[in-house]
Specification:
mainly alpha
C-alpha cells in the first residue's frame, strides 16, 4: 500500500537527549476504571514511580498524603495527586559525563572547540 511506503520514517523524531524517570501521571490514571477507591489504586500501583516537578516519587507515598478515600472520576484523582506533587516542568536525568570532560568548565570546553581546527591544521603542516 502507498501508506506503508510513505511511513518509512517515524512521524515524530525522538531526540537523543536526556531521559525522564518515572511515568506520567496521565498514563497511570488511564489504567483504571473510574470510580475507584484509593486503597485499590494503592494495591495495584503503589510502587509505580511517577514524574513530579521535584523529581520521581512512588505513587503510594504521594497517595498517603491524599485525604480522599474515593475518586469518582479520573480528573478527581489527577487533581488530588497534583495538589500534593504540584504542576510544572519535570526535571530530566542528566547523562553521565564523559571521563575526558570531568572537571572541565564550559569556558574550557569553548576554548578547546575553538582550538581544535588549528591543532588539526598544525598536524597537517608537520607531515
Amino acid at each position: 500500500m502507498a501508506d506503508e511506503d510513505e511511513n518509512e520514517e517515524p512521524a515524530v523524531t525522538l531526540g537523543e537527549g536526556v531521559t525522564v524517570e518515572g511515568a506520567p501521571l496521565a498514563r497511570i490514571a488511564a489504567r483504571f476504571m473510574w470510580g475507584i477507591e484509593k486503597s485499590t489504586i494503592v494495591e495495584r500501583e503503589s510502587e509505580t514511580v511517577i514524574r513530579t516537578p521535584d523529581g520521581p516519587r512512588e505513587l503510594g507515598d504521594v497517595l498517603a498524603e491524599v485525604d480522599e478515600p474515593y475518586f469518582s472520576t479520573r480528573q478527581e484523582f489527577v487533581d488530588a495527586v497534583e495538589a500534593i506533587i504540584g504542576t510544572g516542568p519535570v526535571p530530566t536525568a542528566e547523562p553521565a559525563p564523559d571521563a575526558a570532560d570531568e572537571g572541565a568548565t564550559d569556558e574550557e570546553d569553548a576554548k578547546a572547540e575553538e582550538g581544535a581546527p588549528e591543532e588539526a591544521e598544525s598536524e597537517d603542516d608537520e607531515e
